[in-house]
Design brief:
Blueprint: E1 2-3, E2 6-7, E3 11-16, E4 22-28, E5 34-39, H1 49-58, E6 63-67, H2 85-98, E7 103-109, H3 111-122, E8 128-132, H4 144-154, H5 156-166, H6 182-185, E9 194-199, H7 207-216, E10 221-226, H8 232-235, H9 238-252, H10 258-262
Parallel strand pairs: 5-6, 5-7, 7-8, 8-9, 9-10
Antiparallel strand pairs: 1-2, 3-4, 4-6
Helix pairs in contact: 1-9, 2-3, 4-5
Organism: Actinomadura litoris
GO molecular function: hydrolase activity
Region (Disordered): 252-271
C-alpha cells in the first residue's frame, strides 16, 4: 500500500485453521470494501518478491491478504498439495471478514488456483474467483516440469530435496481419499464470477487444462489465453495483474452472488 509516497509494509498475521495449523499471512490495507485473498503456487510464499509485487498492484483496487499454505514458508504443518489447503484459505477469508471487507476475491496461482477453485466450489461465500495457470486435473505428468514435481512429492529423497532447497515440507502419506479435481467441481462455482487465465507458453500445464476448466464451469465465466505467457506468479507481468484487478473490481461491483449471500457468517478464530 502506498501512503504519502511511501510503500507501507504489510500487517503481519498469524492465523489458525479449523484443524489447528498455524498459517503465516500478511495484510495490505485497502480503501475499498474489496479484499483479494492471494494464494501462491507450489513451493512459493507470499513473502517472495514476485508475490509482493502482485499484491502491491492488486492493492490499488482493494485490500490484500497473502498467505503461506501449510508446509510453506513460515506456516506450520505439511503441504497436502491441494487437499486440506482449502482450510488455509478459509482462515484467510475469515480474517478478511473480521477486518470489515464485504467483497472477497480469491486469486490463485498454479496450485493456489486449484485450491481457490475447490474452496469456492465446496465452501462458497466469496464474490469472485481468479485462477492463473491452474491445473484442471491431478496426477498430470505429460510435461518434464510436472514429472519433476511428482518426483518431489512422491519420493522420500524428493521431499527431502525440496525441504532443503525451498523450505517446503510435504506430507509423506499422500491422499486418502483423493480430493475432488478442480475440473470436477468447477461447475459449482457459479453464480460467482470466475476468471481463468492461462498462458500459451506454460511449460507445466498446456492450454487443454484451461479449456477443460472453462468447459466444465458455468456462467458467469471468462477465459483469457495470454500470448507468450509462461507459468504462474513468476511470469505474471504488471499489466496482466492490473487487468486482473480491474476485472475483479468490475465483477464484484455487481450484486453479490447467491452463493455469497447465503454463506454463513465466518466463526471467529484465533490470530
Amino acid at each position: 500500500m502506498i501512503h504519502h509516497g511511501r510503500v507501507q509494509p504489510p500487517e503481519p498475521l498469524t492465523l489458525y485453521t479449523a484443524d489447528d495449523v498455524r498459517i503465516d499471512a500478511g495484510h495490505l490495507h485497502g480503501a475499498d470494501d474489496l479484499c483479494f485473498v492471494l494464494a501462491h503456487g507450489f513451493t512459493c510464499s507470499w513473502r517472495q518478491p514476485a508475490l509482493r509485487r502482485i499484491a502491491a498492484v492488486l492493492n490499488r483496487h482493494g485490500g490484500v491478504i497473502g498467505l503461506d499454505f501449510r508446509g510453506h514458508g513460515r506456516s506450520g504443518g505439511h503441504s497436502t498439495v491441494g487437499d486440506r489447503e482449502v482450510l488455509d484459505v478459509e482462515a484467510a477469508v475469515a480474517a478478511a471478514r473480521r477486518r470489515g471487507y464485504r467483497r472477497i476475491a480469491l486469486t490463485g496461482f498454479s496450485l493456489g488456483g486449484a485450491v481457490a477453485i475447490r474452496y469456492a466450489a465446496l465452501y462458497g461465500g466469496v464474490d469472485a474467483v481468479v485462477t492463473v495457470s491452474a491445473p484442471a486435473r491431478w496426477y498430470y505428468r505429460e510435461t518434464v516440469p510436472m514429472r519433476r514435481v511428482h518426483w518431489v512429492i512422491e519420493k522420500r529423497v524428493g521431499r527431502m530435496v525440496v525441504r532443503l532447497a525451498r523450505g517446503t515440507r510435504i506430507a509423506s502419506k499422500g491422499w486418502d481419499p483423493v480430493p475432488e479435481a478442480p475440473h470436477e467441481v468447477a461447475g459449482r462455482i457459479a453464480p460467482t464470477p470466475f476468471l481463468i487465465v492461462h498462458g500459451d507458453a506454460d511449460p507445466f500445464f498446456p492450454l487443454d487444462h484451461a479449456h477443460q476448466l472453462y468447459g466444465e464451469a458455468a456462467d458467469p465465466r471468462e477465459l483469457w489465453i495470454e500470448p507468450e505467457f509462461g507459468h504462474a506468479e513468476t511470469a505474471a507481468s504488471p499489466d496482466l495483474i492490473k487487468r486482473i484487478g480491474a476485472w475483479t473490481s468490475a465483477a464484484t461491483a455487481l450484486p453479490r452472488s447467491k452463493a455469497a449471500r447465503e454463506a454463513p457468517e465466518a466463526a471467529p478464530d484465533r490470530e
